Amino acid sequence: MNQPDQIYFFGTCLIDLLYPKAGLAGMALIKRQGVKVIYPANQSCCGQPAFNSGYRQEALAVARAQLNCFPNDYPIVVPSGSCAGMVKHHWPELFAGQPDESQAIAAAQRTYELTEFLVDVLKLKLKDLGQPTRIAIHTSCSARREMGIADRIDSLIAQLSNVQVVEQAHKTECCGFGGTFSIKQPDISGAMVEAKCEALLATGAESVISQDCGCLMNISGSLEHQQRELPTQHVAEFLLQRITGEGK
Amino acid sequence: MNQYQAFYQRIDKALQNDQLRRNFRSAMDGIRERRLAQFPDDRELQTLRFQAKGIRNRSLSRQAELLERLETKLTENGIQVHWAETPLQANARIHEILEAEQATSVVKGKSMVSEETDLNHYLEQRGIEVIESDLGEYILQMAQEPPSHIIVPAIHKNRFEVAELFQKFHPEQPYTDDVDELTGCARQVLRKKFAYADAGISGVNFAVAETGTLCLVENEGNGRLSTTAPRIHIAITGIEKVVEKLSDVPPLLEILTKSATGQPITTYFNMISRPRQPGEKDGPEQVHLVLLDNGRSRIRNDDELLDTLRCIRCGSCMNHCPVYVHVGGHAYGTTYPGPIGILLEPQRLGIDKVGSLTSACTLCGACGEVCPVRIPLPKLINRLRAEAVEATPGDNGVPGTGALRSRSEALIWKLWKQIYTRSRIYSAFKYLATRLRHIKPPISNGWTRYRPIPTPSSKPLSELARQQGYDDE
Q1: B62-89, pLDDT tens digit by residue?
Q2: Structure letter (DSSP) for residue B177
Q3: Which of A31, A72, B214, B388 has its CA 20 to 30 A from that of B100?
Q4: A193 touches chain B (CB under 8 A)
């Protein structure tokens, strides 16, 4: 796909309420390439929380409410592997047999996760203006397995000359978030995220970067609970800081 | 106690046991590495997975016809075929066979289907001595525990725990925690059992309809001894294990052993095709096959869930599951643990009994990625979650559908829907949440046990995007 003139930015409910800086950074990265970024006012959530909890009617209603936010055939860019995965892979299943099925499939087909869009479509070239730093990358399971785009974040970070990536043990293992899993199975989730934090801390990284705010909320929450110090950041914010030289 | 409470108790017990968790962590790490070493070329692996899936799908789509052919062929070969719809029927049939031959001692090879039917207890209650001959199963028989893994059943025990068991049950042997010496000790005990047992019971990995051949994969030679030394051999398996042709076996065998234990081939591969013939010096006089349904036919009725039956029981899904590695197999409380257990057991036993298993999954996809027959495990587990809270259950489909629907949870999702489908309510919700962000809601749940409630931003992205001049259409 060639660089489009404009895109829709689907910010996700988590970023909207908790991590707007990650959303703004993602939008800025796209805008800097001369692409117009549209943030549809009425967007809310892809429906994933209910879908993964078995409440498919409710998930369908919420997903349907998004369809009208993206009326034209511009690409839809989502700064989250799991929300992008929901739209791309589960909307067609969720809308199967519904009157607006074709609309949902069309939306799914032009949906990109942010790092995927930056690499595959915008072919983003980055010049690192930041101070030397050492980071660990936590790639979400949805980005890695459902979307199959784990290498996109890696290739973006690899362009940054002053950034050293250190690898945590059990890198590909889930952080234990899993949406409502973290509430329904709190003790397993707690054990998983503590193990993940342990592995990340052991790398000596100065920060943890991810393309998913769900994982970051889980990991940073656990670190805070354990009173351990390790900053976490969404990849969009990190990239923007590195190429503008702002931040640390 | 409801099923969730019981499940949480088992999970708690597992998580409190540091030794158990270390055992699983190191065992699963090792087995993952060994598997990966067998598949250096990802493209070859993916080709083999598609091939294996195709073979299993073909077998399942023609299952009725293939089972008939299998029965005809086996009968021609002199193997007696028995059909059982329920575990009780299977156990009773096996007991009848043993009783008719005045068999009082049985030596068993590893069989998960016999775990499904709880065969050992059934026979023991009727005065028959049953000895497990798989080393792992033998350890568990001493410990009186069920398997915690379908391939490596005693993986939750380390060698010191095993040494303690041997000391307790074989005080005549000097104490050792050396693995080879322990194995030697078990071998001494078991050899005698093979020599005098009246019957051997085994499982089956593939039953070939074309030739009437029962294939049995194993590493210890105990399978070969159980099926050849005693005068009666009884094999028990699920009806889905039938495959069409002998040429279907090599690809399945290859991907099974590589996926399961990271071996290019197992030490033993048995192809059982008939009892001892006149003039032959060894082999059992009688060979029986018990084919168990136990809910499998019902699973076939659902076009999507049917994929569950492709499973060739390699255990790779549990080896790679981040939940399984933390809690181990016993926490699940069912015969089959791990992702395949989460998928299979509620369909077999009912959502009203074990539907809570579906909560023990982050949908991370690690299982689906390694499944040798490409069962879309996360997708199907998520489907079962929908079945579990179905508002208007029908008669067909998964037993116990709708059993886990609770009014309070349904209400929360209804409320969620109201907020997230109406932009004015959603905007108001965000306005309040961001402006009152320092007021922590008095929530105490599973999340807050390990993490604080996250603080909303001072303004939502929707407002900030507008301020920064981004268009809304």
Answers
A1: 999 999 999 999 999 999 999 999 999 9
A2: -
A3: B214
A4: yes
